[in-house]
Design goal:
The protein is 25% helix and 30% strand. The protein has 305 residues and is α+β, with helices and mostly antiparallel strands. It is elongated and about 75 Å long.
């Protein structure tokens, strides 16, 4: 009897060791690339929590998804598997999920570089979120223009609404202004330069106003404001006639500016000809800006058109 007891005890101990040593298994409800991404995000203990569906095909049959307690993972052959959750997921869902104009996610939710918000990029655009603005989509030519102005880190900040219809075109509003698109004019911007008394569009300022804004821009170390208002002064003085009031794409630092300038800032103005003017066509004016000796200096001017 003693030997039998020892044998049973040994078997029980072996079984206990076997159970303790067994590797953790992936959730059987989630497999493939979606399952692999889910495990990489921490599985049930990660940000998505437990699955609430198995893998399902998207209605068009081109992809698949799994919903979890706190979000979803969507997959397609073109995009791979990416998670979307929270307010960004709600905004995407309101736009029709993957069947809407945004399409499939092409990134996971990602924090903005300053940590103030988050975003997901999708096939057809992006959804950006911050505590102050909520989650809103931006896409197409307006998104391209916003990106050129520095995304959410630029003077326009986060979107405060989705793109919407306006007479003749479309518009998106941002913390620092708005952008409007029309088939004729493309994207035009109306923003806040961040300097009191110096709003955008900058081309509406007189040369005298531009000079004042240049000084205030310098006091606040705002090189972009200095450059833009310096350009405005040049356009106001040199191109007032026989041209109509100019419209501006604004000023931006470029890796390969049109001009070899000390600051690498380029400003572009579109100046149409006045009706009845002997000048038959307008011009685009590219000005290279330098920032030196406490001032913004136009160091190069090029005309096209």
């Amino acid at each position: 009897m003693k030997n039998t007891t020892r044998a049973v005890g040994a078997v029980a101990a072996a079984l206990a060791i076997t159970v303790l040593a067994a590797p953790a298994q992936a959730d059987p409800r989630v497999g493939g690339e979606i399952g692999a991404h889910y495990e990489a995000l921490g599985g049930p203990q990660g940000l998505l929590g437990e699955p609430v569906t198995g893998e399902l095909r998207t209605p068009d049959g081109r992809g698949a998804y799994v919903h979890f307690r706190d979000g979803s993972i969507y997959w397609s052959p073109a995009t791979g598997a990416h998670e979307v959750h929270g307010a960004i997921r709600d905004s995407w869902a309101a736009g029709g999920w993957e069947a809407g104009f945004l399409g499939m996610p092409v990134t996971d939710e990602t924090r903005t570089p300053d940590g103030a918000g988050a975003y997901n990029h999708f096939q057809g655009g992006s959804v950006y979120w911050s505590p102050a603005t909520g989650a809103h989509e931006v896409h197409g030519a307006i998104r391209d223009a916003w990106a050129e102005h520095g995304w959410e880190a630029g003077t326009f900040g986060f979107p405060t609404g989705d793109e919407h219809d306006v007479p003749g075109g479309r518009r998106s509003d941002f913390q620092g202004g708005s952008m409007r698109w029309t088939p004729r004019d493309g994207v035009t911007v109306a923003g806040d330069s961040g300097v009191t008394g110096c709003p955008a569009p900058y081309n509406r300022a007189t040369p005298e106003q531009a000079a004042g804004c240049l000084v205030r821009g310098w006091e606040l170390r705002r090189g972009d404001v200095m450059a833009t208002y310096a350009v405005n002064a040049v356009v106001g003085e040199l191109l007032a006639t026989p041209y109509s009031p100019a419209t501006a794409d604004g000023c931006a630092r470029t890796e390969q500016p049109v001009a070899d300038t000390t600051s690498g800032i380029e400003c572009v103005y579109h100046v149409p000809a006045r009706p009845g003017s002997p000048v038959q066509h307008g011009v685009d004016v590219h000005l290279g800006i330098g920032l030196r000796a406490g001032a913004a200096v136009v160091e190069d001017v090029e005309f096209t058109g």
